[in-house]
Amino acid sequence: MIDTHCHIDDPIYAADLDSFLQSQHEGGVEAILVPGVTVESCETVLNVCRRYCDYLFPALGLHPEEVRADYKNQLAQIKSVVNQVGSTLLVAIGEVGLDYHFSTEYKAEQQEAFREQLRWAMEYNLPVMVHSRDATEDSLEIIKNAYKQCLTDYGRPLLGVMHCFSGSRETALEYVRLGWKLGIGGVLTFKNSRLGEQLCPPDGKEGVPLSALVLETDAPYLAPVPHRGQTNESRYMIYVAERLANLYGVSAETVISTTSTTARNLFKI
């Protein structure tokens, strides 16, 4: 299994990281991708990924909830680090996007920060880890425009993954048609989640192909059932894989193999 989104630089894991990562490896996790979310996390993400360079792979970005009036200064600092490490170390730009859930005070700033970081992805030919909450229409419009711009300016598509996807079938298919992937994690296992029927509609409508999905945790958050409410771990993705296997009528091994191949191809790991 490949965890395509895990905040392993969170202090909650710091006490005994060696043994923790060993337990993830023993639990079937072959690689973990670690996104940045702030200026400060550039250092924590890169430090932990350099320490475990064959197992942890970094991305850098400014999370939409961190966008404030001084966002241009924050972006400049993160871009300076991106310029230093470039695509020789980074596997993606992220975690970036839009989040209107708690406030729309900096809505315009979030949108411009998102566009700017998508331009970084184009410049370095890197995929994007996108966070979108209560911002479906704006996120899709900005991504579509950036996708077209990348084709025009660079002769190649802009690719990425919609982190923690929990939207509609129609939205999912819009991204799939762009060649984008959907990050599926613990939410799929929650009792009241409707994500499963969006991925595999019971009424025979077009669903999302398994090859368009990647596994993720968003650890330490969103632990799947039966660990809901606990600190999440990458090895818990097995419960997500088993749920997907049930939905798609395949084995968990097939889910793991397919999603891992998709992750390797997208992030070039």
Number of distinct beta strands: 8
Averaged pLDDT, please? 97
Strand/helix succession: EHEHEHEHEHEHEHEHH
Helix content: 40-55%
Instruction: Based on Cα principal axes, name the global outline.
Output: globular
Tags for this model:
269 residues; alpha/beta; eight-stranded parallel beta sheet; 8 strands
Topology:
Layout: E1 2-3, H1 17-26, E2 31-34, H2 39-51, E3 56-60, H3 71-89, E4 92-99, H4 107-124, E5 128-133, H5 136-154, E6 160-162, H6 169-177, E7 181-184, H7 195-199, E8 213-215, H8 237-248, H9 252-267
Parallel strand pairs: 1-2, 2-3, 3-4, 4-5, 5-6, 6-7, 7-8
Helix pairs in contact: 3-4, 4-5, 8-9
Structure description:
This protein has 269 residues and is an alpha/beta fold. It has 9 helices and 8 strands. The protein has an 8-stranded parallel sheet, sandwiched between helices. The protein starts with a strand and ends with a helix. The mean pLDDT is 97.
Question: Summed up, what is this model?
Answer:
The chain is of the alpha/beta class. The chain has helices at residues 17-26, 39-51, 71-89, 107-124, 136-154, 169-177, 195-199, 237-248, 252-267, and strands spanning 2-3, 31-34, 56-60, 92-99, 128-133, 160-162, 181-184, 213-215. An eight-stranded parallel β-sheet has the order 1-2-3-4-5-6-7-8, sandwiched between helices.
